[in-house]
Amino acid sequence: MTQRLPALFLGHGSPMTVISDVPERRGMEALGRALPRSQAILVISAHWETHGASHVTEGAHPRTIHDFRGFPDELYAIQYPAPGSPELASRVEELLGTGRVLRDDSWGFDHGAWGVARPMFPDAHIPMVEMSLDRNLTMAQHLALGAALAPLRDEGVLIVGSGNVVHNLALYGQSRGTRPIWADEFRTRINRAVTENDHAALTLFAQDDDAARKAINSAEHYLPLLYAVGARLPGDEVALFNDTLDGALSMTSVLIGDAGLVGA
Ligand code: ZN
Predict the structure, then answer these.
(1) How close is the Cα of 68 to the center of ligand 1, in Å?
(2) How far is residue 114 CA from its own chain's centroid?
(3) Structure pTM?
(4) Per CATH, which fold does 7-261 belong to?
(5) 234: CA distance to ligand 1 center in Å?
C-alpha cells in the first residue's frame, strides 16, 4: 500500500521568491526534502481561472508559462519541464465527475505551479497536472472538490493548493514593510479556522467583514487553500509554516497530514 501523502497549501507570493534566498523559499525546499516520495503532483493554482468546469492540463509535456510582467530576465528564463500525467488527469475527472472537468491543452504550468514545485522538486522529475479554479463555484463547492480529491492522497499523489491567504495587490504597494491590523486579524482567524477545521469560518464571510474584503478582495489566491483543507482526512494533523506577513501579502502555508514533516 502506498504511503498516504499530505495535502498542502503553499503561499507563493511574488515570482521573485523562486530566485531569492528568502526564508519562505528555504521552507519549501526543506519540505520538499522531507516529503515522502510522490508519484505525481496535482497543483491547484491561483493563476488559472475558468468558468463552468475545472480545467486540467492534459499534455504529456505542459509548457512553462511566465504569467507576470516587469520582472528580471532570470525569471523568464526558468523552465519547469516536469512531465504531464494524462493518467492523473483521467483520475481527477473520475473523482470529480465527467462534465465537471475539462481537459485543456491550451494551458501549461503557470508560476502558481512552478513557483512552488521548483523549490520543492528542482529536478522536475515528478509528473504534474495543474488544475484551474472554476470561478462559477461557491467557496463551499471548492471545499467539496478538495474532499472529492482526497483519495488521491492514498494513490501517491501530492495535492498542492498554491495561492496566498492575504493577497491584495492594490494595497500592497502602500502597505509593504508594515503589518496592517486587518491583515494580521485575517491571517490569525484563518489559521485558527484551518487548525480547527472550521468550514463555516473558511467559506462564509459577512458583507461587512472589512478584513476579509481587503484580504481576499478577488479571492483567487485564497481559494486554493480550500482544496487542501477539503482533502483533510480523519487522523490528520495540521502544521502551519512560512507564516509571514508583509503588508497586504501573507505567505502562510499549511500541511495537512503528518505535522512532523514541517521543520523536520
Ligand atoms: Zn500569485
Answers:
(1) 9
(2) 11
(3) 0.97
(4) Protocatechuate 4,5-dioxygenase; Chain B (3.40.830)
(5) 30
